[in-house]
Amino acid sequence: MTLQARLAEVLQTIDKVAAKSGRRQGDVQLVAVSKTFDAEQIRPALEAGQRVFGENRVQESQAKWPELKAAYDGVELHLIGPLQSNKAEDAVALFDVIETVDREKIARALAKEIARQERKPRLYVQVNTGLEPQKAGIAPDDTVAFVNFCRDELSLDIEGLMCIPPADENPGPHFALLSKLAKQAGLEKLSMGMSSDYETAIEFGATSVRVGSAIFGHR
Questions:
Q1: 198 partner at 20 to 30 Å CA-CA among 9, 80, 150, 207?
Q2: What are the φ and ψ backbone dihedral angles of 3, each rounded to 5 degrees?
Q3: Which of 101, 73, 66, 87 is CA-nearest to residue 191?
């Protein structure tokens, strides 16, 4: 199956599950995860009309996306991997959405760069729903207070929440928890679900799903 066919299949599945869940067509955005693939491997997805992509690393993205953004109109680039504070300047310059705001130091670094560059990427707070020590993200119990801190203290416009459930657990309860936290924080956007569980995520209210291997194949 070609990349274009896999992309079309994922988009059809998103629409089908969204409709079954009582959502309208277009309510769920596909973030095509292109991390570790080079520009030439990404071009077929762009040629097929996909415009929203996710990357894990700032440096890797800098090597391929400025050229691709110049060649294709309307590209929206999401940072979905952990952000180091010393990369905040580069991240604000390149990314349209940063989904991994997960601690005060990062929030302050982003606020400083947003003010300096006068560029405002949309921001998501990453929540560590499984409290996994090796994984980035703020603890569920601290999420609402952290969102309020970002808004009130730093004037950051937080758009939504993001999570990556533990690989060996049923993702449903994690998606349900993220949805509940978003409501408590007054947020409407939920970035959750990957190739293995994006259908479940849509059922629990995901507004964007991050799908890589189901489109690009395994790295």
A1: 150
A2: -60, -45
A3: 101
